[in-house]
Amino acid sequence: MTSARQAILGRLRSSGDPAAEYEQIARDYLIRHHEQDLRELLAERLADYRAIVHDAPVSELPTALREGPYVIPPDLPAEWTAGLADRVVTEPYDLEAVGGVITGCAVAIAETGTIVLDHGPRQGRRALTLVPDHHLIVVTPDQIAADVPEALARLDLTRPLTFISGPSATSDIELSRVEGVHGPRTLEVFLV
Amino acid sequence: MTNKPDPNSTSNLGGVGGGRMPTYVGMPSFPKAAREAVADSRLRANLAHATGTIRERRQRAVDELPDWAELREAARQIKDHTLRHLDHYLMMLEEKVTAAGGTVHWARDADEANAIVARLVEETGEREVVKVKSMATQEIGLNEALAERGITAYETDLAELIVQLGDDRPSHILVPAIHKNRAEIREIFQRKMPSAPADLTDDPAVLAEAARRHLRAKFLSAKVAVSGANFAIAETGTVLVVESEGNGRMCLTLPDTLITVMGIEKLLPTARDLEVFLQVLPRSSTAERMNPYTSAWTGVHAGDGPSAFHLVLLDNGRTAINADPVGREALRCIRCSACLNVCPVYARAGGHAYGSPYPGPIGAILSPQIRGIGSDVDASLPFASSLCGACYEVCPVAIDIPRILVHLRARAPKKAPERLAMTAAAWSLRTPKRLAALQRAAARGRRFARHARMPRSWTDTRDLPVPPAQSFRQWWKEGR
Ligand code: SF4
After folding, report:
1. CATH of residue A127
2. In whole angstroms, what is the distance from residue B82 CA to residue B450 CA?
3. How far apart are CA A20 and CA A134, in angstroms?
4. Is any ligand 1 atom within 6 A of the Cβ of residue B362?
5. Pair B186, B333 in one domain
6. Which of A112, A149, B42, B74 has the fewest CB atoms below 10 angstroms from its CB?
7. Any idea what DSSP says for residue B395?
């Protein structure tokens, strides 16, 4: 009896040189849609999807905190949490019991108002930025990519990746958009 | 008609594809089901409202990109290239997923896929799974198959939850509960959701909050999750799920075991190809520049997320469809649902009339190819269209749906279905009163005037030429 694998692959037997043919694919699209003022564009596009945007230094982070402890990844720079020593906790901690989470990111995409976490430095594991209801993200200028192609080129796809564009949302009721379902209901971004 | 697909009635009679997919019990042919749906004025109003909203927004999101045509062309070429070398890329994917600590399974049809998933769940010792919305698992009737083995599947997508709690069937690819309005959803929640507050209103934000509370404990305690996949990257073994609510992130991150069922056509060769699809999918689908959340993972990641990952690669007729030079275009589909939202026949008939998890124009070309043209409903589906071409115009991977419909019409048993065809497409557009209602519903006057001028002798549908794309585009713009 042939295995399902053999049967499926057997029905697909192809010929030719995939690598050479792949190079022929026409990619006449733009590599970016905006050239300048990317920081402003990012701020505008983030706000379009109801993220709260701060054009402010990290020293103003404390003003954004709500009630309860804030969980942080262990490698968050000390200057980000200066003056917050009694407010922040690290894992292991009950993520349901925190007021929010503070992280950095890997890349931000100006065109689409997207922040990408690769769960590397300053970001923590995936659950850390998922369970708490308030997510504060610090974006540094060097992390802003103009558009999707540039962002993807900067990322390593074999890392776990989370693309975030605004707070969690749904369009499932009459196709009208409602913010706040299962993921963090408030997304707050500091463009430092 | 019962509400659940009957797992015993999976059909592959006269199969083009030889796949198996539940046909809903007692499902009448398209025209008959459509007539019943059109008689339901509330359903029609719900659909007209929802599709009207999303149509306008999609157009704005697309118009924002001056290079949309080039993105669409690249998307088409990438998909065609991948489908031509699917064996090559599938083997590459298998190798990479395995190297990253995942396990790859192959399933020829629905029964094999269901058996694999059920066995994997049983091996964990669990009797419950949380699910991320997935067309592939609907196609194979996974929830019903798991129930037969005593395993409960909890849908976590809001619309899927509404459908599941309401003992209903999905009627739209992206928004399965599109046929329900807020008042009806409130009523379902009050009846079926123990945690719903007594003063639940029909404000969508309040309903979403109720769903959040209802599912929270499930997410935090779930040990096994089942998902579909929007894309998989052969070069790296990465799988991606595109979503909005965060239920996907919950399912993909918190449980110990993740089982992903993916149609073999979801593959893309390289990471770079995502730069095209992450631009065209959200704008076509929810009319957003980017959807709220996209998750990507590669096998298992130590200390982060599930410790076991299983990828089930599903054929279910796809290899046969891929061998049909005309029909294979349907495999480019990225399930954005744009073609449903612009379709005048879908807006009138609703999703249930298509008798399959895949409704609308894409359903009309996919279901008969997966299941074959053996049943009344499948034989009538290729006729469930006026061939107006709107679906092709909006499709981000340029699937020439009208062409495939005509191709499939030629294969359908003669006579009866052709008569049905007349009723399916023409009937809703023929009388002045219906036409006027349709125009109001869709707020696209110019577009339907065009149908009204079509000759009555539509019966010879096989010879009806596809409207030239240029003139349609022209007319579409004028009509806006
Ligand atoms: S056929 Fe095209 S428009 Fe329709 S769901 Fe598929 S990709 Fe979208």
Report:
1. 3.40.50.10420
2. 37
3. 48
4. yes
5. no
6. B42
7. -
Shared domain for B244 and B226, answered yes or no, is yes
Ligand 1 touching residue B285 (CB < 6 A): no
Which among B339, B340, B345 is the best mutation to test ligand 1's pocket, defined by most ligand atoms within 8 Å of the CB?
B339
Give the pLDDT band (50/70/90) at residue B40. Answer: confident
pLDDT tens-digit readout, B347-403: 988 899 898 899 999 999 999 999 888 778 888 888 888 899 999 999 999 999 999
Mean pLDDT, residues B181-201 taken together: 93
Nearest CA in chain B to A34: B65
- CB-nearest to B74 from A9, A16, A26 is A26
* Contact by Cβ (8 Å): A36, A50: no
Q: Does the C-beta of B280 come closer than 6 Å to ligand 1? A: no
Domain contains B119: yes
State which amino acid sits at residue B250.
M
Q: What is the CATH number of the domain that holds B185?
A: 3.40.50.10420
Q: Is B78 exposed, middle or buried (0-12, 13-18, 19+ CB in 10 A)?
A: buried
Residue B196 sits in the same domain as residue B78: yes
Over residues A13-70, the pLDDT tens digits come to 888 999 999 999 999 999 999 999 999 999 999 999 999 999 999 999 999 999 999 9
Residues 121-180 of A with CB under 8 A from B: 125-127, 130-131, 148-149, 152-153, 155, 157-176, 178-180
Q: Is A114 on the interface with B (CB under 8 A)?
A: yes
Q: What is the pLDDT of residue A66?
A: 95
Chain A residues with CB-CB distance to B346 below 8 A: none
**Sole residue written with tokens 């209602």:** B437
Query: How confident is the model at residue A176, as a pLDDT?
Result: 74
Cα gap B342→A178, rounded to integer Å: 23
CA distances for A45 relative to A147, A173, B332, B352, angstroms? 12, 24, 30, 37
Q: Are residues B308 and B237 in the same domain?
A: yes
Same domain, B392 and B468: no
- Cβ of B90 and A12 within 8 Å? yes
Q: What is the CA(B392)–ligand 1 centre distance, in A?
A: 8
Which residue matches tokens 């005593």?
B150
Higher pLDDT among residues B43 and B473, named by residue: B43
Same domain, B356 and B308: no
- Asked if residue B150 belongs to a domain, the reply is yes
Residues of B in contact with A165 (CB under 8 A): 288-293
Nearest ligand 1 atom to the CA of B365 is 1
Per the structure, the complete domain to which residue B434 belongs is given by 423-477
Question: What are the pLDDT digits (tens) for B421-434?
Answer: 444 444 444 443 44
Hey, whose CA ends up nearest to atom 3 of ligand 1? Answer: B395
Number of H helices, E strands in chain A: 5, 12
Point out the residue among B275, B289, B304 whose CB comes nearest to the CB of A152.
B275
Q: Are residues B397 and B451 in the same domain?
A: no
What is the full DSSP assignment across B67-98? THHHHHHHHHHHHHHHHHTHHHHHHHHHHHHH
- Does any domain span residue A14? no
Range of the domain at A95: 33-191
Domain count along chain B: 3
Q: Please give the mean pLDDT across all residues of chain B.
A: 83
How much is the pTM?
0.88
Judge whether B394 lies within some domain.
yes
Q: Flag if A173 and B271 touch (Cβ within 8 Å).
A: no
**Which residue in chain A is spatially nearest to B178 when comparing CA positions?**
A174
Residue B380 Cβ contacting ligand 1 at under 6 Å: no
Q: Which residues contact B264 (CB under 8 A, 6 or more apart)?
A: A8, B86, B90, B313, B314, B315, B318, B319
| Whether residue B471 has pLDDT greater than 90 | no
Does A7 fall in a domain?
A: no
